[in-house]
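Table 4 source record.
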Amino acid sequence: MKLMKVVMIALTIVAAAVPALAERAYSPQEQKNKEIVLDFYQKALNDKNFDAASKYLGKYVQHNPLAADGPEGLRGFLEYLKKDYPQSKSEIKRVMVDGDFVILRVHTIRQPGDRGSAIVDIFRVENNKIEEHWDSVQPIPEKSMNNNTMFLTERLPREQNPRPVPIHSEHSSDMIPQPIQALRDHIGVL
């Protein structure tokens, strides 16, 4: 009886939390902001094409203290990438949008064979132009102190968690840990 009570309380707590895990639908402007940032990111960071990317830039206030401000600061960074890291690639793992803010979780590799870095990029979009940018960069270590990956939202057993972490090519809204998904399926929560 005591075990049943604990299980019922746990299920109630998990069921209450499940809707918070679901990704909400974006407003038309949020969807537009997402499309702007994704196209900008491809043209700027992967294609290294300032002219193509610059159409999305407004004032472009840069909050990274190691990067120059404005569109010309971005131009200089892309020239640096073209010269020193021509094969660099950035793969978007996750996209989140909240009003004017578009947040990306990115795996960047500067040179083939490198583990790369995990990046959180935050963009503020106003009137269909990217006005501000923040980022946080974390090198991917050779060894992890835990069994968690830096990009997936679920924990993997050590033997299934190779280093470097394999790149997951989809940025989808169905990245719900399997135990929670199984529980959602069982109780019929969408």
